[in-house]
Amino acid sequence: MNVLAVATGLVWLLLYSVFSAIRRIRSGNADRKKAVLYELKTTDTHKKKFVGFFHPYCNAGGGGERVLWTAISMLQRDEPDIISIVYSGDVDATKEQILSKVKTRFDIDLSPQTLHFVFLNSRHLVEDSAWPRFTLLGQSLGSMYLAWEAMSKLMPDLFIDTMGYAFTFHVVRLLGNAPVGAYVHYPTISTDMLERVRSRKKWHTNSDAISSSDVLSKGKLLYYRVFMYYYANSLRQASFLMVNSSWTKNHVDSILQHTDHLLDTLHMCTPLVLLRFLRPSQTLKSARIVYPPCDTREMAKFTLEGRERVILSLAQFRPEKDHAAQLHAFHRLLVSHPEYGKPGEAHVQLVLVGGSRNAEDAARVEGLKALAKELGIEEHVEFVVNASFPVMLNWLSRASIGLSTMVDEHFGINVVEFMAAGVIPVTHASGGPLNDIVVPFNGEPTGYHATSPETFAEAFHTVLTLPPGEDLALRQRARTWAVQRFSEEEFENGWNESGWRKWLPS
Ligand SMILES: *[C@@H]1O[C@H](CO)[C@@H](O)[C@H](O)[C@H]1NC(C)=O
Ligand SMILES: *[C@@H]1O[C@H](CO)[C@@H](O)[C@H](O)[C@H]1NC(C)=O
Ligand SMILES: *[C@@H]1O[C@H](CO)[C@@H](O)[C@H](O)[C@H]1NC(C)=O
């Protein structure tokens, strides 16, 4: 008996058990579908198709969940013969509880008749805490296991990942041979990250010890490189990809184009060549932007006339929001236009509304107050910490200018809210506010961009001195644009154009 024979035997045994598991899962699926239809008391059962949404944290109530539930409510409205399946790890909530939270949190009414939950027990495998080291890899393998659990409980006719678990695609295609698609909020790893390790820059996932040691750094680069290789391969399994912003599109598109000849060659020369069978036949070239819908109903009702001379900032007191830049810009304005600092008609006020989550944020607020004092502008600046929703709306209904200073913000829902409320946005010239939100509408501007205290101050002055007619027209245009572009209808249109329907079995 030699070792080789034992090893070969073991490999065959493993392959045999995997294949028989696959067969078992596949052959039982028709009955599982029937059971779901029976539970939902469905009629016309032969017409029904199953669209599965992989969203293990579906009860979290965040922006990603709004996208999920809006998509499902759209399916319920347009496609009565589709049963939406949500793969969820929220085992301690019931279907009724989840639906009622969707109603209170997002004001979305879902019909229980065409919606079914498949509850998954192994969600802990995709949590950060489960993988203190090699988190990306661990979570990805964990998500594959979770997808296996999902498929063994029910295989859909079309699988859509709405949480960014691209590694699940392999499992779904292998087990269910079902087409997959995704709505991507954020790439798991970006080509930027890879570059950063390559150039050994410090970054939050790249601690000092690693960037100073050559061997570790090379090891880390290899790890990222291999990870990127497989991530890109996973994404290419998708039949359609939607992304939530142009920032995400740029990253996802560059990942789809990513090539690594060395790793390709390695795969050709070793048993890893088998993995090539997992390659899809057609290759997706790019993702489609489908902006998430924003709820602007309240704000869009505010009157546009008679706005107070208030510059409003609406941002949590987090470091990246760069509130200090707001104080400097405002200071600059008062220096170049002292009349704005005098009591009376011309007086301008800066109001910073934002949440303070913890002791660091609270300390930051104190620091900002001290800075305002040092700049001699404290009597013109008001801090509104932890404002309630009505208080925030009240400021939105009164302000003239909406200020956002964060650099490279991926999106900026606060900027959409400014515009819907009729508040003219002045934002940093980068990221979502530059590329997605404050962009010309019918060839005319919807707001202003700036980069330095001087240019911010100039933009404020421009808005404050707009002739009344132009002022009103700009507010109206910004509102019309924001409400329309980030509307549910536009979202639905984006899904329609992504072509997801043609992947349903006929
Ligand atoms: C896209 O998703 C990311 C990650 O959740 C988020 O930071 C960003 O704001 C989102 N963009 C939009 C347009 O909602
Ligand atoms: C704001 O809210 C946070 C958490 O909700 C709390 O810890 C903090 O003390 C609050 N700060 C103020 C100034 O109200
Ligand atoms: C999307 O397509 C469905 C089905 O064809 C249609 O009913 C719906 O009106 C479309 N929505 C938009 C916004 O185009």
Automatic annotation (TrEMBL):
It comes from the Eukaryota. GO terms for biological process: protein N-linked glycosylation. One of its GO terms (molecular function) is GDP-Man:Man(3)GlcNAc(2)-PP-Dol alpha-1,2-mannosyltransferase activity. The keyword Transmembrane helix applies. CDD domains: GT4_ALG11-like. It is found in: Endoplasmic reticulum membrane. Gene3D superfamilies: Glycogen Phosphorylase B. It catalyses: an alpha-D-Man-(1->3)-[alpha-D-Man-(1->6)]-beta-D-Man-(1->4)-beta-D-GlcNAc-(1->4)-alpha-D-GlcNAc-diphospho-di-trans,poly-cis-dolichol + 2 GDP-alpha-D-mannose = an alpha-D-Man-(1->2)-alpha-D-Man-(1->2)-alpha-D-Man-(1->3)-[alpha-D-Man-(1->6)]-beta-D-Man-(1->4)-beta-D-GlcNAc-(1->4)-alpha-D-GlcNAc-diphospho-di-trans,poly-cis-dolichol + 2 GDP + 2 H(+). Residues 298-479 form the Glycosyl transferase family domain. Pathway: Protein modification; protein glycosylation. InterPro entries: ALG11 (IPR038013), ALG11_N (IPR031814), Glyco_trans_1 (IPR001296). It is a single-pass membrane protein. Residues 49-255 form the ALG11 mannosyltransferase N-terminal domain. It holds the Pfam family ALG11_N. Keywords: Endoplasmic reticulum, Glycosyltransferase, Membrane, Transferase, Transmembrane, Transmembrane helix. Its EC number is 2.4.1.131. One of its GO terms (cellular component) is endoplasmic reticulum membrane. GDP-Man:Man(3)GlcNAc(2)-PP-Dol alpha-1,2-mannosyltransferase that operates in the biosynthetic pathway of dolichol-linked oligosaccharides, the glycan precursors employed in protein asparagine (N)-glycosylation. The assembly of dolichol-linked oligosaccharides begins on the cytosolic side of the endoplasmic reticulum membrane and finishes in its lumen. The sequential addition of sugars to dolichol pyrophosphate produces dolichol-linked oligosaccharides containing fourteen sugars, including two GlcNAcs, nine mannoses and three glucoses. Belongs to the glycosyltransferase group 1 family. Glycosyltransferase 4 subfamily. This is GDP-Man:Man(3)GlcNAc(2)-PP-Dol alpha-1,2-mannosyltransferase. It comes from Daedalea quercina L-15889. The lineage of its organism: Eukaryota, Fungi, Dikarya, Basidiomycota, Agaricomycotina.
